[in-house]
Write a structure and sequence with these properties.
Layout: H1 10-22, E1 33-37, E2 43-48, H2 79-86, E3 96-101, H3 105-114, E4 118-123, H4 130-142, E5 145-148
Parallel strand pairs: 3-4, 4-5
Antiparallel strand pairs: 1-2, 1-3
Helix pairs in contact: 3-4
């Protein structure tokens, strides 16, 4: 008997994990997930966008608009930073991060400082914003490779 030929690729697997992580987000508008992987394809950490530990999801705002203290932006932690902070090992140097949305400039700084060498992203809908342009400029300067995930169109189903 020959081995199966229709198994998913590493990129499909890890981006799928990133998307599943994003599904944990309580944000009603944007759910972003991240998955950090070692050079030998072992999952090191995961994260999603949300409030810091100890801050109630029911007591802080989730709005996108309004005064700074009345919207989500000053309170939420992005998936990339959460994945880095969730890691409990010796070093992330040389790791690869899969993320469902291209990292903002603040997350790019954390990715660079953590030593992550490659970022694989799915969506780049904010490509024309100063934040993402700054991210790409810093990644280029720091030698962090980044590339867009190539969707295969494969429908993944789970057999229970």
């Amino acid at each position: 008997m020959d081995k199966r030929q229709d198994y998913i690729t590493w990129d499909e697997y890890f981006m799928g994990v990133a998307y599943m992580s994003g599904m944990r987000s309580k944000d009603p508008n944007t759910q972003v997930g991240a998955c950090i992987v070692s050079a030998d394809n072992k999952i090191l950490s995961m994260g999603y966008n949300g409030l810091p530990r100890g801050c109630s999801d029911d007591e802080f705002p989730w709005a996108r608009e309004g005064a700074p203290l009345d919207n989500k932006y000053l309170y939420t932690t992005h998936s990339e930073l959460n994945a880095i902070l969730n890691y409990n090992g010796p070093s992330l140097a040389g790791a690869k991060m899969y993320v469902t949305l291209f990292p903002c400039n603040e997350c790019a700084k954390a990715i660079i400082q953590a030593g992550i060498s490659t970022v694989v992203y799915d969506d780049d809908k904010y490509a024309d914003t100063p934040s993402v342009m700054a991210s790409k400029r810093m990644f280029d300067a720091a030698g962090v490779r980044y590339y867009r995930y190539q969707r295969t169109g494969r429908v993944v189903s789970v057999k229970l």
